[in-house]
Design brief:
Distance between the termini: 59 Å
Shape: globular
Radius of gyration: 21 Å
Largest sheet: 2 strands, antiparallel
Helix content: 55-70%
Strand content: under 5%
Length: about 325
């Protein structure tokens, strides 16, 4: 096909791509249908509108103000959702480092879905792909290949990245409830936002001394908490492959960074994790704070999870320091 014919065909297809991008705000069923090669790895700005809007909505704090109640709700939701991401989206769904019941699996899949980081199948599939190709041209978010901004937040805004690679997660795809969360990934965040607004309205009437409102809890509890949660999470893609120490000589650029470990409940011990991703524990030394590991140990004591995979002695024997 000639260059001119290609351009004509591309312009003719644009309305279809726009309609599909709009549909994917609500239903990602057709995200597996990639456009032509020239579009597959470029940011789809129409599809990215909700992501941009989330950031802009944080400016609502100028009008709603802030209160200890709003800050407390934002912090609590950050902590709960970060644990769901690190403990379940990552260490459970992506790496199967422990076992649990179907009910607990679904409960934390719901909480993870509230993070606005897509569904559990999408998250696990992309993370498994990352481990297969870490810091190579096939890695979807390597800072050494495409730069910091792309690894931090550009990569997942492309049509290729919207797709859930079900072939990577056959063990998870057998659960219809997880597939539903993956397909309608906007449902849980919308319900959380509505619940926070309703809670704020209720507190404004029954506890006026708390100085909060529906708009304030929506802005702080949902938008600001979620945006901070997102950027904290993706520092592991961007910063943890550039800054920190390397205990193990892995084939990638993963680093151990104690500051990122605090921010992400233990995920900052990233070089440890890349050397041995099969452990539910990522802080390999007693002094490496891993809040997710402590939470999983507590859940094990309560009988909610079991068979937590520890760090084998041979792995510790390979450590450089």
């Amino acid at each position: 096909m000639s260059t001119r014919a290609t351009r004509v065909a591309s312009r003719a297809a644009q309305p279809m791509f726009r309609r599909r991008s709009l549909r994917q705000w609500f239903d990602t069923a057709d995200a597996s249908e990639l456009p032509d090669a020239t579009r597959a790895d470029r940011i789809d700005w129409l599809r990215a509108v909700p992501f941009v809007a989330m950031h802009l909505a944080c400016l609502g704090a100028i009008w709603t103000g802030v209160s200890p109640t709003a800050l407390g709700v934002a912090a609590a939701l950050y902590a709960l959702r970060m644990f769901a991401l690190t403990g379940f989206y990552h260490r459970y769904f992506s790496h199967k480092t422990f076992r649990t019941s179907r009910a607990v699996q679904f409960a934390f899949a719901l909480i993870g879905a509230a993070c606005v980081q897509r569904g559990p199948l999408w998250w696990a599939a992309h993370h498994r792909n990352h481990h297969r190709h870490a810091d190579t041209a096939l890695d979807p978010h390597s800072p050494s290949v495409r730069g910091f901004v792309w690894s931090h937040m550009g990569w997942f805004l492309t049509p290729r990245a919207f797709r859930t690679e079900l072939e990577r997660v056959p063990d998870l795809a057998i659960f219809p409830e997880l597939r539903w969360l993956d397909r309608y990934d906007i449902a849980v965040p919308v319900l959380l936002a509505l619940a926070l607004y309703a809670l704020g309205v209720l507190l404004q009437h029954v506890a006026p001394s708390w100085h909060t409102s529906g708009g304030q809890l929506l802005v702080w509890g949902f938008f600001i908490s979620t945006v901070v949660l997102f950027h904290a999470t993706v520092t592991i893609n961007s910063l943890a492959h550039r800054y920190g120490s390397r205990r193990f000589a892995t084939r990638d650029d993963s680093r151990n960074n104690p500051w990122l470990a605090l921010l992400t409940f233990g995920e900052g011990w990233h070089n440890n994790h890349h050397y041995f991703p099969g452990s539910a524990q990522q802080g390999f030394r007693w002094w490496e704070i891993d809040l997710t590991w402590y939470g999983l140990r507590l859940m094990a004591l309560l009988g909610l999870v079991h068979d937590l995979k520890p760090v084998p002695a041979w792995v510790l024997g390979k450590a450089a320091r």
